Amino acid sequence: MLTQNLLHSLELIIKAIGADKVGLRLSPSGTFNDMTDSNPQKHFTYICNELNKYKLAYLHIIDALEGDIRHGANVVELSILRDAYKGILIVNGGYNKEKGNKAIKDSLADAVTFGELFISNPDLPERFKTNSRLNKADPETFYSQDEKGYTDYPTLT
Ligand SMILES: Cc1cc2nc3c(=O)[nH]c(=O)nc-3n(C[C@H](O)[C@H](O)[C@H](O)COP(=O)(O)O)c2cc1C
To answer: What is the 3 state secondary structure string of the chain?
Structure first.
């Protein structure tokens, strides 16, 4: 039922603005806010197969995070979803420069994005390019209300 709602919503959005302007983000192994799935590998492989017909701008998959694994998530292998989905695939979830480059080299993803690393390193591309040290993110300031922890991490210069 949820899958049908997802696909129906996608169809309405695509009708309104065109598939090339629509991206979708999925968390197959996510446990945030008590998310669970009885058989995520089966369900998300089905969804990835179905998505092929829409020619979306991209599909973005969040890999299992450490917190999900601690919560006993039924981890879905990225390679299975990569095989199922034929369009542009973006991933994130605990990636660093090396792991990201490897995922692209191994054709597991077309692009890799960074959450926490970008929060704590506003000049992340420059740091990657120059192999510079990275600021560590402070989880205490996540989801807070002011600029602390969002716009006050130092740049290299
Ligand atoms: C402070 C914070 C806020 C976030 N807010 C959102 C959000 O509003 N929507 C969303 O889809 N993901 C959100 N995320 C999740 C990130 O986009 C990303 O998927 C997650 O942090 C895993 O990637 P990472 O290991 O590179 O950080 C947030 C993450 C953090 C740390």
So the answer is: CHHHHHHHHHHHHHHHHCHHHCEEEECCCCCHHHCCCCCHHHHHHHHHHHHHHHCCCEEEEECCCHHHHHCCCCCCCHHHHHHHCCCCEEEECCCCHHHHHHHHHCCCCCEECCCHHHHHCCCHHHHHHCCCCCCCCCHHHCCCCCCCCCCCCCCCC
